[in-house]
Write a structure and sequence with these properties.
By secondary structure, this protein is an alpha/beta fold. It has a single domain (3-151, 171-197, 246-254), classed as Vaccinia Virus protein VP39 (Rossmann fold). It is 37% helix and 22% strand. The protein has helices at 3-21, 25-28, 30-42, 62-70, 83-87, 126-135, 154-163, 175-179, 202-211, 224-233, and strands at 53-56, 76-80, 95-97, 111-117, 137-148, 187-199, 242-254. The chain has a 7-stranded mixed beta sheet, with helices on both faces. Helix 5 (83-87) links the parallel strand 2 and strand 3.
Length: 255
């Protein structure tokens, strides 16, 4: 199978998983919602221009809704490749069904604000995509991107290592490599966060990932015995619960 076909199959797998999770996404996406609020709070410090505002990888529209609530006179165009996710957006929202691996729809060119939350790491070339999005801004426009980075899931990686199992979680981009081609005057800020989720057990972690459609993996599915071993050796809290730790970066770039 050639590389193009492999990419198409991978992309289709991701899309199907998000389509299937669309109706449950809001209930289970606590970390995504948390960082939506972080993005919205950062807008107060920026001299935003009136113009085209777009949410890239908008999903069910939670971030776009919060931005519109904060700026009632503005409308945010929601762009996503999952039809079922877009159908969950509020009535009369402007939505565009679009695969962001194929650039940006013309509607998003020369935007004064592009935002993206938990999307970039799903794309085939995150570093090139980030620069492409930046280049499509109008002069003086802002690009705000939030994504998990390569130091995420330390507990998961540790448990796989001591069991000599293949790590089956997603591999996230390195934050520094994403911005190394930007000039210092183009980078308004880079904020890094540690966010820890707590679950009853490893099985609940995996169920939560499935419930938000984020379980696409190029690794083989774990066997029942492997899952049991992971549950046994995953680092535990005093109450025997388990944590999943994320490392999150928010980039604010200005053209």
């Amino acid at each position: 199978m050639n590389d193009m076909k492999i990419k198409e199959n991978w992309n289709e797998k991701i899309r199907n998983n998000f389509d299937n999770a669309a109706k449950n996404y809001l209930h289970y996406s606590s970390i995504q919602k948390h960082f939506c609020y972080e993005i919205v709070s950062s807008l107060d410090k920026l001299s935003l221009k009136i113009g085209k505002w777009c949410d890239l990888g908008s999903g069910i529209g939670f971030l776009a809704d919060e931005i519109e609530n904060k700026f009632p006179k503005e409308k945010v165009c929601r762009i996503d490749f999952s039809k079922q996710m877009l159908l969950q957006n509020k009535k009369n929202s402007e939505t565009i069904l679009w695969d962001l691996n194929n650039g940006l729809p013309h509607k998003a060119w020369q935007s004064s604000l592009l935002v993206s939350n938990f999307c970039l790491h799903w794309l085939s070339e995150p570093d090139l995509t980030l620069r492409y999005w930046f280049n499509k801004l109008e002069k003086g426009g802002y690009l705000i991107v939030c994504l998990p980075t390569s130091n995420s899931f330390s507990e998961w990686k540790y448990t796989c290592k001591i069991n000599n199992f293949e790590y089956s979680g997603l591999t996230f981009p390195d934050s520094q490599s994403l911005v190394k081609y930007f000039k210092s005057d183009q980078i308004c800020s880079i904020k890094e966060y540690k966010y820890q989720e707590n679950f009853q057990d490893v099985y609940q972690i995996l169920r939560n990932i499935i419930n938000i459609g984020a379980h696409s993996s190029e690794s083989k599915r774990k066997t029942i015995s492997e899952l049991r071993a992971m549950q046994k050796l995953w680092p535990k809290n005093k109450n025997n619960s388990v944590n999943l730790t994320w490392e999150i970066s928010i980039f604010i770039l200005r053209k």
